[in-house]
């Protein structure tokens, strides 16, 4: 049991070290020697857990998927409205991209064409499907108008979030990401919500992004 825990901790150290190296130099320039040194483990220990740099990248992506999936499931289990759930999902991922090195690395590797033989599309498809269902529920419940079809809204929201976080990463290292995601959602709310419901929806937006513990609250 002690040996299993030690192995788990070593594997975790390797993934955190790899995440840090990839953040600094990118996947293509990252070397196993850099990952070993940054992780504080021997090359032998690294090879015990992972056979190659590609194996480490795949493990980072898998771990990022697990973290974000479990977080999403917790959010979706709440009794918030569909529109509010979409805001919470975006804010949660934004905060994890700021604070969680595994999530940062996994998202970067997913969109980095130098990592795998073909792009990883499943995460994007999963998010689009989830947001499509939520957008449909929001429209059915009268939270949004029928002006924009739910599937079209979902196909826009996910790429929009992806673009916002990439630009934020380039310009500020994602320091301003929660605020930029809030701006994205203000545009979406003004486009999707009927005029008579707009004030309520904008108040909901403020409540989500200024809740205790949110980065947006800290920025104000």
Automatic annotation (TrEMBL):
Keywords: DNA-binding, Transcription, Transcription regulation. InterPro entries: ArpA-like, CprB_TetR_C, DNA-bd_HTH_TetR-type_CS, Homeodomain-like_sf, HTH-type_TetR-like_transc_reg, HTH_TetR, Tet_transcr_reg_TetR-rel_C_sf. The keyword ATP-binding does not apply. This is ScbR family autoregulator-binding transcription factor. It holds the Pfam family TetR_N. Residues 8-68 form the HTH tetR-type domain. NCBIfam families: ScbR_bind_reg. Residues 31-50 bind DNA.
């Amino acid at each position: 049991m002690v040996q299993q825990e030690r192995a788990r901790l070593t594997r975790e150290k390797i993934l955190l070290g790899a995440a840090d190296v990839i953040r600094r130099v990118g996947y293509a320039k990252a070397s196993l020697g850099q990952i070993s040194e940054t992780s504080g483990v021997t090359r032998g220990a690294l090879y015990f857990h992972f056979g190659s740099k590609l194996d480490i990248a795949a493990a980072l992506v898998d771990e990022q998927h697990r973290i974000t999936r479990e977080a999403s499931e917790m959010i979706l289990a709440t009794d918030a409205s569909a529109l509010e759930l979409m805001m919470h999902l975006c804010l949660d991922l934004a905060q994890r991209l700021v604070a969680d090195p595994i999530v940062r690395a996994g998202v970067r590797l997913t969109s980095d064409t130098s990592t795998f033989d073909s792009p990883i599309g499943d995460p994007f498809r999963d998010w689009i499907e989830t947001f499509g269902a939520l957008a449909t529920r929001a429209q059915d419940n009268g939270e949004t108008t029928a002006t924009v079809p739910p599937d079209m809204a979902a196909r826009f929201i996910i790429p929009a979030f992806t673009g916002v976080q990439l630009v934020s990463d380039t310009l500020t290292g994602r320091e301003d990401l929660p605020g930029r995601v809030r701006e994205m959602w203000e545009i979406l709310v003004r486009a999707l919500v009927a005029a008579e419901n707009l004030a309520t929806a904008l108040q909901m937006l403020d409540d989500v992004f200024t809740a205790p513990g949110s980065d947006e609250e800290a920025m104000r």
